[in-house]
Fold this sequence. Notes:
4 helices
Amino acid sequence: MIPLGTPAPNFELLDVVSGNIIRLEQEQHPVATVVMFICNHCPFVRYIQPELVRLTTDYIAKGIRFLAISANDASQYPEDGPEHMREVAEELGYSFPYLYDETQETARAYEAACTPDFFIYDQELKLVYRGQLDDARPGNDQPLNGKDMRAALDALIAHQPVSPLQKPSLGCNIKWKMEMI
């Protein structure tokens, strides 16, 4: 996993909902920026979508910026392409940009491994958290509550250090383009 304290790699990606190009560094929020690697087809992402919507709604109001990125190869997984991304974002009411990483360069820069994969950066865009939403997985009967990410975000809001004890995210591997392997 990418070391804590690592600066966030900048990127410019298309927001499939608004049609705008979003740059990581175009606006910084006073508390934190969350970069989430998600997609449409992964059963792990589908399972956490309700909590993802709740969590982002709760924390955007507290000054946290959320950016979701899909980096899967849409030629092999058309459901993860821009048109379907926009449909899912609108259907679920995503209140954050849903960005398409067609070249997969951003996913590689972040060393994203799976969907979902979460990275939280402080106001200086230094990594303070990389890991799971919570312990819930499809079929494991753990509560879907976002406790791990909520604890990290609450610490940042309270100007407290984020615990370095972090569990890696678990999900579907990113679907890399064949020429990128």
